[in-house]
Amino acid sequence: MKARAAQILAQATPKFDAVWDALDRRLIVATQAGLPRVPQPYHAIAARLDISADEVMARLRHMLEAGIIRRIGAVPNHYALGYQANGMSVWDVPDERIGDLGKKIGALDFVSHCYHRPRHLPDWPYNLFAMVHGRDRAEVEAKVASIAALLGTAERGHMVLYSTRILKKTGLRLGA
């Protein structure tokens, strides 16, 4: 079942039909390796592109809404922080409750990201994913048990898929 899980996850590709211009492309190139580690990163990017910080934020907001970019967020190196066990917990919950339950799980301080994915029945009944990090597997399992308790009777099954190696933590990169 875990091999099938990898195959299903690989098929999940976002699709969009949006327009973006040369300045949007320059903005993506300027931010794709990460935001500058300064008190006002959007101002630093704006200065580099010779536009205002407000325009940087407006363009990023537009690209998020249009699906050109998926998110802006921190990507910590959990291994460097001492978290050696990383488990993607996958849950079968009622589709009509996915929004409410996902928000509750995503708000937990030990969940780095939580999202909805389609089921692929009969092989893959899971529709809610939550990444849990721990110093060891026992810690991850305890945190997963906390999620199960939070879900209560809404949980109809789950499993934890553990990382076996470190993969690159970057998305698609545009050339300059």
Topology (elements, then pairings):
Layout: H1 2-11, H2 22-31, H3 41-49, H4 53-66, E1 85-91, H5 98-106, E2 111-116, E3 128-134, H6 137-151, E4 158-162
Antiparallel strand pairs: 1-3, 1-4, 2-3
Helix pairs in contact: 3-4
Percent helix:
25-40%
Strand content: 5-15%
Query: What is the helix/strand order?
Result: HHHHEHEEHE
Rg, nearest Å:
19 Å
Task: Count helical runs.
Answer: 6
Which segments are poorly predicted (pLDDT under 50) over 5 or more consecutive residues?
A: 8-16
Tally of discrete structural domains: 2
Main sheet: strands, sense, barrel: 4 strands, antiparallel
User: Can you tell me the CATH class of the largest domain?
Assistant: Alpha Beta
Number of strands: 4
**CATH architectural arrangement of the largest domain:** 2-Layer Sandwich
Shape: elongated
Main sheet strand line-up: 2-3-1-4
**What name does CATH use for the topology of the largest domain?**
Alpha-Beta Plaits
> Could you give the distance between the termini?
41 Å
Main structural class: alpha+beta
Overall average pLDDT = 85
Key words describing this protein structure:
Alpha-Beta Plaits, elongated, 4-stranded antiparallel beta sheet, Arc Repressor Mutant, subunit A, alpha+beta, 4 strands
What does this structure look like?
By secondary structure, the protein is an alpha+beta fold. The chain has helices at 2-11, 22-31, 41-49, 53-66, 98-106, 137-151; strands at residues 85-91, 111-116, 128-134, 158-162. It folds into two domains: 22-75, Arc Repressor Mutant, subunit A; 85-162, Alpha-Beta Plaits, CATH 3.30.70.3460. The protein has a four-stranded antiparallel sheet with strand order 2-3-1-4. α3 (41-49) packs across α4 (53-66). It starts with a helix and ends in a 14-residue tail after the last strand.
